[in-house]
Amino acid sequence: MLSIRRVWIPLAASALALTAISVQAEESQFIAKLTGASQLPEPTTSKATGELKLIVSADGKKISYTLTVENLRNPSGSDMHLGPDTANGPAVVKLFPLRGAGAKKGDFSGVLAEGTITAGDLAGPLLGSPLADLIEQIRDGNTYVNVHTDDGTPPANSGPGDYHLGEIRGQIK
Predict the structure, then answer these.
(1) Cα separation, 110 vs 120, whole angstroms
(2) 2-51 pLDDT, tens per residue?
């Protein structure tokens, strides 16, 4: 009986350790729901909506994303920012447009941007930081995304399809 305990206890401890490792090595998912009502410093009258889906890889070396929008006119840019849902903060990742892609003119619904974020994509106060720093901010609820629009005609911020500071916004949760 004693020899069985000597084998069983180390085996049970090993099984628990492997379970803990496998739980830590899973992908993490986060979502932001974007609306005009969430935009700061003033909510917009936009009827547009959007969703950002993030998947953090198990090893924490990349974040895959898909940004979709509905009923948005003239999307000109989108960034991930540091900040709570009550304040604006600095941009830390450009989501749209990327690598020579331009703004979209007219009405748009569908996938606006998708890709992969790595440490090399970090900007602003996270420039040169490991991706783990951004992931920590996301987990802490201290990041948001917004989508800017531009109709190309002055004045700026004249209504839906022309909000340079951002038309829709959502906190990443």
Answers:
(1) 27
(2) 555 554 455 445 554 444 444 456 999 999 999 999 999 999 999 999 99
